[in-house]
Design goal:
Oligomer: single chain
Low-confidence stretches: none
Number of strands: 13
Number of helices: 10
Distance between the termini: 36 Å
Helix content: 40-55%
Shape: globular
Strand content: 15-25%
Length: 301
């Protein structure tokens, strides 16, 4: 029940704390501070949305340099102030890269750091709900994998609608191929659509989903969606990306993703895009060359 809020801008932080007090959560010991040492000391579970948010006209990649530097300092702060942390969820964009940087500098095991990738899968479910006019509970196992960005891989083969494979719908009168392609674009641009509508990036949805991830890491209900996790399996190496994951009190684990040939091709392209961003961060000098990662974090091969 012990929750500490952190933000370097104290007045806004106090406003957030006041609003949470007004929720009247029973049994919660809520504190707040603009001192990072005070915030992190003794912390066991952390959610960080601490980077700059996207604005209209920006891509997640536009945030790369500034947020990569924030992630590096955040990882160093974790290593210094709460090395015994159990699980960290990184939310700020581009989350696959910022999560990787945090993992490297925090010195944690890959199982202890995950990133918010579920939003893309929930957006796929939502677009199907709106198109098919049925409750979300009747559409299960919606999945996107790879990067949390416009290069994500949207999978149809995992999804079932009222017990039927979604792939049986696509290309029929129920979901013509042109409509499916348009729906995929809406999924991919779901975050941009939020910005266009409200002038700021998503807030409620990542807040809710990231706390579901932490609840699972505490040993609660299994997390129902993919998460971003560190992957190095010979096919996808030295990267953080969305996979089919399980989050438990023992951390995050993943299993290999299987899809149609076209879905696998999309996933490989998404991986290549993430590798390009990773290599840009290496060139900036924010993280070392891959061959030196083990010396920075002995838990990384």
């Amino acid at each position: 029940p012990n929750i500490c809020l952190y933000d370097p801008y104290a007045p806004a932080l106090e406003g957030v704390a006041e609003e949470l007090y007004h929720c009247a959560f029973e049994g919660v010991n809520l504190t707040y501070t603009s001192d990072i040492k005070e915030a992190l000391s003794g912390a066991k579970y952390i959610v960080s949305s601490g980077g700059a948010a996207r604005k209209a006209g920006m891509t997640r990649e536009d945030l790369l340099k500034g947020n990569a530097e924030i992630a590096a300092q955040f990882g160093k702060d974790i290593r210094q102030y709460c090395p015994d942390v159990k699980h960290v969820v990184v939310v700020f964009n581009p989350a696959d890269i910022t999560g990787l940087i945090v993992l490297l500098y925090a010195g944690l095991k890959p199982s202890q750091v995950s990133t918010l990738a579920a939003l893309d899968s929930t957006r796929l479910q939502n677009e199907l709900v709106k198109y098919l006019h049925i409750p979300a509970s009747e559409i299960v196992n919606c999945r996107t994998y790879g990067g949390h960005g416009e290069q994500m891989a949207v999978f149809a083969s995992t999804t079932k609608v009222k017990g039927e494979p979604l792939t049986d719908f696509i290309g029929t009168t129920r979901l013509p191929l042109t409509e499916w392609e348009a729906l995929k674009v809406r999924v991919i641009q779901g975050g941009k659509h939020i910005i266009d509508l409200r002038g700021r990036s998503s807030f409620q949805s990542p807040a809710y989903l990231s706390i579901e991830m932490i609840a699972a890491a505490m040993g609660g209900q299994p997390f129902r969606w993919p998460a971003g996790t560190y992957v190095s399996n010979g096919k996808f190496d030295h990267i953080m990306m969305a996979m089919e994951t399980s989050i438990t009190k023992d951390g995050v684990t993943y299993k290999e993703v299987a899809g149609s040939p076209s879905e696998q091709e999309e996933l490989e392209k998404s991986y290549e895009h993430l590798c390009k961003l990773r290599d840009e961060v290496i060139e900036m000098g924010i993280i070392p060359a891959i061959k030196d990662w083990h010396s920075l974090n002995p838990n990384i091969d």
